[in-house]
Design brief:
Strand order of the largest sheet: 3-2-1-4-5-6-9
Shape: globular
Strand content: 15-25%
Radius of gyration: 21 Å
CATH superfamily: NAD(P)-binding Rossmann-like Domain
Distance between the termini: 58 Å
CATH architecture: 3-Layer(aba) Sandwich
Order of helices and strands: EHEHEHEHEHEEHHEHE
Helix content: 40-55%
Number of helices: 8
CATH class: Alpha Beta
CATH topology: Rossmann fold
Number of strands: 9
């Protein structure tokens, strides 16, 4: 089914590569006009050019309030409205044992991930309120749902995004605006390659690593998987979905894993005191 975003206008931050790029392409393929924001100018301009007349690119550092406001204003100026805001820009940020993290690095991580999303929500809401409609999508993570899935600052930030999503959903619903978030686990992106392997170009290698560790054996998560989740939340198909965190994680957060110990497979019925089988 094509055309699920016909006539809609979307703004996506962090749109020059990875999940943002894949989502921009998916949205355009489904009929949307997309305004891309990023700090990677060469990549952003190239992505916009590849998408043709249905996309525009603007430099946007999401930690700068005036730049976020300008990105949203430019989008409305071009198209006359705003239907979808996806706060996707992100970094891995501070990585160290808790007793060794520098305060400035911890604060910078939250500035990009939390304050950047806050600003996107703030200015999207201002544009959407008068039209009494809109979908805001924030990028959370499985690290924002459970412990042990990411560095401390990153996990703290992603937990905050889930909370911010639910709180703003509770406020903005009265204006017809839905706010949801997506929580992926590791997916094949340059950011994941850099984080795990120290090389943002090592896409084949990171795909193999993620596939090996996936609950869906041999199946790595992709940027397109997350883009499809964003498509659902952006479209009218999710018109009654609000305040929700949609996991795209092959079941990691529900306990799924590909290496269940063999003693848990095809074992006999067990009772008390080491007894097996049903009582006579």
């Amino acid at each position: 089914m094509a055309g699920r975003l016909d006539g809609k206008v979307a703004v996506i931050t962090g749109a020059s590569s990875g999940i943002g790029e894949a989502t921009a392409k998916t949205f355009v393929d489904e009929g949307a006009y997309v305004v891309l924001g990023d700090i990677q100018n060469d990549l952003g301009l190239a992505v916009a050019e590849s998408l043709g007349s249905k996309a525009s690119y603007f430099f946007c550092d999401v930690t700068k309030e005036e730049q976020v406001e300008n990105l949203l204003s430019e989008g409305v100026k071009i198209t006359g409205k705003l239907d979808i805001m996806m706060n996707n820009a992100g970094i891995v940020g501070a990585r160290a044992p808790i007793d060794q993290i520098l305060l400035a690095e911890f604060q910078r991580t939250l500035e990009v991930l939390v304050a950047g999303s806050f600003l996107g929500i703030k200015y999207a809401a201002a544009k959407m309120k008068p039209q009494e409609s809109g979908s805001i999508i924030n990028m959370a993570s499985t690290a924002g749902l459970s412990g042990g899935f990411g560095p401390h600052a990153y996990a703290a930030a992603k937990h905050a995004i889930v909370g911010l999503t639910r709180n703003t959903a509770a406020e903005l619903c009265r204006y017809g605006i839905r706010v949801n978030c997506i929580a992926p686990s590791g997916v094949v992106t340059p950011l994941a390659a850099q984080a795990h392997l120290g090389d943002f170009m090592a896409m084949d290698e990171i795909k193999g690593t993620l596939a090996e560790n996936s609950p869906l054996k041999g199946r790595a998560g992709t940027a397109e998987d997350v883009a499809n989740a964003a498509l659902f939340l952006a479209s009218d198909e999710s018109g009654y979905t609000n305040g929700h965190c949609l996991t795209v994680d092959a079941g990691f957060t529900s306990g799924s894993k590909s290496n269940d110990p063999q003693h848990m497979v095809n074992v006999p019925f067990m009772r008390e005191a080491g007894k097996t089988g049903l009582e006579d």
